[in-house]
Design goal:
The protein has 153 residues and is an alpha+beta fold. The protein has helices spanning 15-21, 72-82, 127-137, 146-150; strands at residues 4-8, 25-44, 47-70, 93-101, 108-116. A hairpin with a 2-residue loop joins strand 2 (25-44) and strand 3.
């Protein structure tokens, strides 16, 4: 069976969060996605008055994250937790295969990445959500992420 890789950002940097969403996963390591920046414009179906982490296309930007190795069953479990439906029905996220880069390796590597399909502007994330991301992001180069530091003020 082929290995499945998932590029995590935002709250899914937290090992505890990933354990809750899909207990069957292995941490592969740090990686970055080129030309995508972290933003807070995703809409969570249960908390529409707060925004969630999302990635949007931004040239010459690198967003660091964690890569997890998943089984097919673990990916299906994560799809459900992330609000992704392969049929597209009532899906709040989109899963796309993107090339990620692992520091020290000279070639790209394909990994699944989730993107919010419903977005909103000028809505801040819940403070507890931001602090969870802050705690998990300490392992990343360039910590704290620029967009998160703006929310402290």
């Amino acid at each position: 069976m082929a290995k499945i890789y998932y590029f995590a950002y935002g709250l899914n940097l937290s090992r505890a969060e990933m354990q809750w969403k899909t207990p069957r996963h292995e941490v592969y390591g740090l990686a970055y996605l080129e030309n995508y920046g972290l933003v807070f414009n995703g809409v969570h179906p249960d908390f529409p008055t707060y925004s969630t982490a999302n990635l949007c296309y931004q040239e010459k930007i690198k967003t660091y994250g964690l890569v997890y190795e998943l089984s097919e069953t673990a990916l299906e479990s994560l799809d459900q937790a992330e609000g992704y439906s392969s049929s597209g029905e009532q899906s709040v996220s989109l899963r796309e295969l993107k090339n990620i880069y692992i520091p020290g390796i000279q070639r790209s590597h394909p990994a699944w990445v989730y993107f919010a399909t419903k977005t909103q502007e000028d809505v801040l994330p819940q403070l507890a959500y931001v602090y969870k991301i802050y705690s998990a992001a300490r392992i990343l180069p360039g910590y704290p992420p620029q967009d998160l530091s703006k929310l402290e003020h």
